[in-house]
Amino acid sequence: MRKIILLSFLSLGLNSAFAQSAPYWQQHADYKMEVSMDVKNYQYKGKQELVYTNNSPDTLRKVFYHLYPNAFQPGSEMDARLHFIKDPDGRMVNKVKTADGKEVKQSRIETLKPNEIGYLKIANFKQDGVSAQTRVSNTVLEVTLPKPILPNSKTTFTLDFDGQVPVQIRRSGRNNSEGVELSMSQWYPKLAEFDFEGWHADPYIAREFHGVWGNFDVKITIDKEYTIGGSGYLQDKNSIGHGYEDAGVTVVYPKKTKTLTWHFIAPNVHDFTWAADKEYTHDIVKGPNDVDLHFFYKNNEKTTANWKQLEPLMVKVMDYYNHRVGAYPYKQYSFIQGGDGGMEYAMCTLMLGNGTLEGILGTATHELGHSWFQHILASNESKHPWMDEGFTTYIEDSALNELKGDKKETNPFKGTYAAYYSLVNSGKEQPQTTHGDRYDENRPYSISSYVKGCIFLAQLEYVIGKENLDATLKRYYSDFKFKHPTPNDIKRTAERVSGAELDWYLVDWAQTTNTIDYGIKDVADNAGKTTITLERIGRMPMPIDLKVDYTDGTSETFYIPLRMMNFIKPNPNPNEKRTVVDDWAWAMSNYSFTIDKNKTAIKKITIDPSGLMADVKPANNVFEVK
């Protein structure tokens, strides 16, 4: 028995070592699709050919596809979630009154009629010409393959699909709240991702996505009056027109033309989205690095004025992102009025567009930011929503602050920190390791993803310094663009750049609900000097920046390194004297040091004058003589 156990441990150790040292790999899927849209009944038919490359070390005997439109049917998992979550998304419910006059929220999916639901039906599925066995479970298609896919080999899947565009409820759909006729996101049979963790065939419950990198070759046939904007480059722009044609070209259709076939190619992306409407205005503005920025918006006076002002602002925002993170790698990006709020897609966004200029600027800035943090750095949005939403919020807030010019704030994240504190105080916080679908309520999900994820980076500046953070973002982009980075990858990148040990930071911030709470416990005379005693009240450790203001108008700072970091941060204010004192071990709840000044000379002592450390109870961070 001892020998068997020993062999088992040796085997486990070898397997673990192999898993940790295995080279990075990712799957690849090249799509060819032809689809025809009937705008009278919002039904569409299509054919799909997908060449799938198995770069994994596994032999695959099954594959899975997402059938997202099936979520918009009474009794679906998305419908069920709306019945039981405490704070359902207001876009997905109607307020109705019961017989006794009580107002309740009713799922909009629940009341859909057969001609209003969404569906995606698959037929004639074949692998390399041989029929395969399929099984549909609401939004997931399971395919048992007639031939296993060996490691480092390719296979071709073909299928036919019939779809119906649902009444617009969440993201995709027809006739949204602003009258956009077709918002075609999550519309096609989409191969689920398989990576080092296995399959990610998540049901569609309303959260976000994870896709396979590849190339899309898509032909869309639709009535000629419709203008299409979306992913990819239009191949036949001087035959199609609709604002795509070259300067000086006049597009004339044959007299009997009823439909047009639009041919798009989107290289090296992990999704394909489009929208169509008969009343789109289509503008093209030249952006940084010769990128064409396309704007599609409804042709009405109020919308037009705001969108015209938006266009040069988005040129500035893209330029900021290029310099802050890395160069946008495609030659086109489209801002498209559609959907139900704002949502990122490959080379484009669908966003509401009838609001104020400030509102659409905020939405457009956020969604463009997702081109870096999701559509180039393709983290798993379902498992780690804080990585794409939070990091995007960080660069969004930074870009909007930059647009303020001379009026920009020193700390543009104050409101973000306040939102995080409200979540902590509510008692409803869940760790960021929670799958996006498993949050008890929508509000904690949103704050955890957008707000706490943003603070991960804003606070990292406090931990390792601004120059190191800036270099980390650029190195992260350079090392992981067109890949699927994980939380460990951003942590390891920051470690490589700064030289600090940061495992504690990722663990405590993202994998627990531990909070930061430090305080000034005592300020005491000590033979003509002053001894300052601090205390760690919260579980999460941090290095400490401490500023002392003196009665004579001078000031100095003290830096207390965190022992487990094995790191000394560069002085964030080189023009101000800073003293690095002994490090502070996490296990020691109290820490004291002495300064060569009498207590009577001290006017104020402040822990973290930058406000970038997310101390949940900042009231005890200041000692002030009044």
From TrEMBL:
The active site is at E367, Y450. The keyword Transport does not apply. Zn(2+) binds at H366, H370, E389. CDD domains: M1_APN_like (cd09604). Its cofactor is Zn(2+). Binds 1 zinc ion per subunit. This is Peptidase family M1. It comes from Flavobacterium defluvii.
